[in-house]
Design a protein that fits this description.
Elements: E1 20-30, H1 33-44, E2 51-55, E3 60-67, E4 70-77, H2 83-91, E5 94-102, H3 105-114, E6 119-120, E7 129-131, E8 134-139, E9 148-152
Length: 160
């Protein structure tokens, strides 16, 4: 018996599928990035991040590790008014967001807006934001069971 025969409503019809290509990365909000690295790196089998960066507009410092094709990020706020700091104040440390890699962020945003999904704009009111060689946008967690979801069209080639 398939799901439709079992009475499961709302199944995707052909042509209605979002262009999600893969899980891109998962972000863990941490109070202290250096301490979190000492905790996580032995578990991940790493002695340093595969990538590390500071994103001043987002007020974050990040250590990224590749687990197969999926990024695992530890994020620390660089300012008390940053989103990571606010998340930790409200929820404590833990999973802050899940990111999906899509064909084109702007097309995914348009499709989701048309379906009633709210997005979180930046300080300038922009929904789609630039980062390195790609663009990303955040779907508001109030629509997705409290989970902050990022849509990103990062196409950087990696050796997995």
């Amino acid at each position: 018996m398939n799901l439709e025969d079992a009475g499961v409503p709302g199944l995707q019809k052909e042509g209605e599928v979002m262009d999600i290509q893969r899980l891109d990365h998962i972000c863990i909000a941490v109070r202290n990035l250096d301490e979190a690295r000492r905790t996580w790196e032995p578990l991940l089998g790493k002695d340093k991040p595969d990538d590390a960066y500071v994103d001043e507009p987002e007020k974050i410092r990040v250590a990224r590790y590749w687990i197969g094709e999926v990024g695992f990020e530890l994020m620390e706020s660089t300012a008390p008014d940053g989103d990571v700091a606010k998340f930790i104040e409200k929820n404590g440390e833990g999973v802050m967001l899940i990111s999906f890699n899509v064909g084109k962020t702007r097309e995914a945003v348009k499709e989701l807006l048309d379906k009633g999904y709210p997005f979180i704009p930046d300080k300038r009111g922009e929904i789609v934001r630039p980062f390195r060689n790609c663009e990303y946008a955040f779907v508001h967690p109030k629509k997705l069971n409290g989970v902050l979801v990022e849509m990103i069209d990062d196409k950087e080639k990696r050796d997995f």
